[in-house]
Amino acid sequence: MKKIFSMLEGTALHRPFGRTAGFCRATLHLCLLLFAYANASAQSYEAESGVLSNGADIQGCGSCSGGSQVGNLGNGAVVIPVNVAAAGTYNLTVTYSTGDPRTINVTPNGGTPVAVSCPASGGWATPAAITVSIVLNAGSNSIRLDNTYGYGPNIDKIAFSPANPPDIRSIAFGTNNRIDYDLANGHYSVYFNNSKVIGEATASANSDQVHESTDFTGRTYSTMPITDAFGSGTKHVITMTKSGAIGMQQIFYTYPGKEHFFTELVLTGNGSNCYKMTPLVSNYVDIQSNIDRRALFVPFDNDAWVRYDAKEVRYANFFSSEAGAIYDNASRKGLVIGSVEHSVWKTGVNLVGEGRSTTNYVAVVAGWTQESVTRDKRGHGWVSVGQTACRSPRIMVSYDADWRNGFEAYGQANALAEPRYVFNWTASTPFGWNSWGAIQSSINLPKARSVVDFFSTGAPGFRNSDSTLYIDLDSYWDNMSGGGLNGNFSELTEFAAYCKSKGFKPGIYWAPFVDWGKFARQMEGSSYNYQDAWTKVNGNPVELDGAYALDPTHPGTKARLQMVIGKFIACGFEMIKIDFLGHAALEADSYYDNTIHTGMEAYRKGMEYLIDQLDGKMLVYAAISPNLATGRYAHMRRIACDAYKDINETAYTLNSTTYGWWQKHIYNYLDADHLVFGSQTEGENRARLASGIVTGTLITGDDFSTTGTWTARAQALLQNEDLLNLAAGGTVFTPVEGNTGNQANEVFVRNAGNRSYLAIFNYGGTSKTFNIDLQRAGMSGTDNYTTRELFSGATGARQAATHVQGTFSITVPAADAAIVEFNDTALPVTFISFTAEKSNTGTLLQWKTAGETNNREFIIERSTDGKVFKAIGKVPGAGDSSVEKRYAYHDLAPVTGVINYYRLKQVDFDGHSEKSVVRQVNYRKADDTKSRINIYPNPGADELNIRLNQSLEGKVVVRLVDMNGKCMLSRSYTNPSEVISVPGIRPLRAGNYIVEVESADGLVQNTKFNKN
Asked: Origin, by domain of life (predicted)?
């Protein structure tokens, strides 16, 4: 404590007074007052010297100043008389001790309390200090310390030193936003829309010493242009110096058109390696709205049934992982703060509202660990060891009229700051099945083949837009290897081949950074012993989730990983589900790679090595893993883990979707874990499926190797065309409200052009009527909508009205869900779909509308370059219609040798028009000798074989198209053999079809097939 006070007392004032010398000559009297104010000495007052009341008491404290402190400062209070020479702003340093974070209210002279949140000091007799600004009168003052809203810390003493006259540098960003940095005092305030939202924020860094932004004696401001992943902007640098100390910089990044900014902290000079950096800490955060204020806890991972928690601010006193928010759910105004870089540091956002009224305490701490959140059993490692500069992660600060927009921007910023290391997924939204849902440890080859057969013939309508599914073997796939990782993988190869023969994609599972055995033995694929590769804390292996963590940088871990992934690729697997990845991010005593010192550095090394071994050959699907840091390495990730079938598990999943939907910007797809129907009620089945649609993908999990209640349910629900079309978009719905604490939101919304969708969940035990304000839900409050409930497919079933305006009412039975489609009748045409496909007569264009108003016609336009379109035909519109309409147009003369681009131009009777999305069809020329395919048997009833007269590499798609141009069956193959067997023929109606074979380069060959 003596060090802190000496730094405060020694603050230099010479440069600020030098700047005002001319002014002082003109106003000598004011200058003398300033001189007296600036030279008032720092003063310290023991808390026990004050007047105690309401149960406050004096407690012995050997490490406290004077050997005592004042405690019981909840309802209890202490009033300390103080005397200063001049009126003005003073730095108040409160020395306190507390075992957990607590707030003390400091009230000068009976005025407005200043809430001071005090982080845990390490114990109730272990002093720490925190400094805030306070205004005092000249002469006698009284300082009251208490906390009428909760429990307070123990107080050792208080000290005052005069603040320097401010020297402000304003940094503008966005619209009417600015950062005011006070060079004289080392703190900054942030104004959004000209309102002060963050006040007197400071920064600090912990290396061998503590470096506070308020402690430096010299500060300068400079700017430079910068172009980075966020665009072209300005880098604002506050450079801080002090004789004999490491240098420190506070850096701000601003970009034109962006309503948020970024900040980071940098230590410079020898010894700047660091284990903790705090770029922002403020005792004054005011979001300018105070009706239903919430502080959002964001988990570090998705393990151990962790939940997001939108706490009422009055109960908030926690660290949120990587990002946090304070917002008013009523007005939706809110502040979002978080790290956008996760490859070096673990970052915590400390949010405190407990014991406060209208303001909050916020601190962003890089170098934070907490076993209950990050799973670490030791503190954060050191960063930039042996280097001459140490940089914190870049922190985004955003204040928005809608806190959800702040998180959308935050998710996008994460994707820009740390681009994907894995290749970007451009294929269709993944649909599939995973064995852990119901079969679990009983998986074997016959069961796996039976599941494939079920989806092949029992549910032919359940396919993604690529007309395929992922059939994924989870844990216990080694039942088929006969010897673990060193076993015989022939059954796995057989399974993968069988999947492909049915037009599906085989998937596999592995946890690459854990040791379930937990005993010393040789690591598969290497000469190392497992005990050499265990991650250790205090010399002992770290156990988490029942397994020992493996050091991701150890050569034994790498050799084992390389061997196993190589086997998976050789088997023909096209998807891998990776699990228990958080083990690779644990802080450790040390790592094999001596350049690595933190858990996130180790995670980056391990995950990059894993992705390198996969070599772009698989869809990468992450299960238990860090929420944000995994975005670089996975296409798809569970937003929550270990949820299965009942309504409570659906609610658990959707808690994560409610408050983590914005991670859609970090991953290609999010999913809701196992969609298991089992023997639950039909309503719970609907809710479980709806959770997948709302979250982004459909991964089913029933035991389809046998027949049960779930069989018919799956055949009905998983072949509902409306639901599948909605799910195929892979788009996460947005929560309508954010005030559900650690529970799930009941209403989610998705806007898609002319249509909007509301997903409504009733998690309770009795039916519930929802009256939904459409404007609050993000739709129009004045337009008229027609509605359709997608589970029933009806316009009247399970809902109160088919035409709504302003408010939508629906009654949802207990433990059930509904998904309602809204078509805006104010729009001329509501499109359901528009497709363009080759047929035996040219190009078949098909489209469907859900409603039409004043629609005269559709003009079909074609282009050969995707830019210049020409009309090639017209189809009359329906005028006014509120029912589904289907349209088709044949382009009998597509342009050969090039890609043909098609779009629709919808024209009203009054001449107004709108254009559709663009579809393309490849008509590049092919060698006639290579375009012939032979099929047999023809006619055929049960099977279809296609003999190719050339070898086709890459992805090959086979389609059966009826004579109306409708695709009735589609199968995908990779590097097929000379003969392709096409399953799924039996259910087709008898008649003539066109068989189309499309190669990876877009060449289409076709011939006729007669189905008996």
From this structure: Bacteria
What percent of the chain shows pLDDT beyond 90?
74
Instruction: Specify the fold of 829-922.
Output: Immunoglobulin-like (2.60.40)
Determine the topology of domain 2-162 in CATH.
Jelly Rolls (2.60.120)
Give the confidence band of 948 by pLDDT, cuts at 50, 70, 90: confident
**Residue 75, Cβ density class (10 Å: 0-12 exposed, 13-18 middle, ≥19 buried):** middle
Looking at 3.40.50.720, 2.130.10.10, 3.20.20.70, 2.40.240.50, the CATH number of the domain 511-638 comes to 3.20.20.70
Measure the CA–CA gap between 770 and 820, rounded to whole angstroms. 13
- Which residues touch 928 (CB under 8 Å, ≥6 apart)? none
- 338/341 Cα distance (integer angstroms): 9
In angstroms, the Cα distances linking 959 to 454, 614, 837, 889, 967 are: 20, 30, 11, 20, 7
Pair of tokens at residue 270: 């020898």
Question: Strand order in 967-974's β-sheet?
Answer: 967-974, 955-962, 991-998, 1004-1011
pLDDT for position 929? 37
pLDDT computed for residue 913 by the predictor: 81
Q: Which of 277-291, 396-410, 704-718, 891-905 has the lowest mean pLDDT?
A: 891-905
Q: Which sign, positive or negative, has the C-alpha torsion 663, 464, 786, 755? A: positive
> For 463-585, where are the alpha helices, taking DSSP H only?
490-501, 530-533, 555-571
Structure tokens at 488: 């015989």
Q: Report the alpha-carbon distance of residue 806 to residue 90 in Å, rounded.
A: 54
pTM: 0.81
Q: What is the pLDDT of residue 965?
A: 63
Q: How many CB atoms lie within 10 A of CB 584?
A: 29
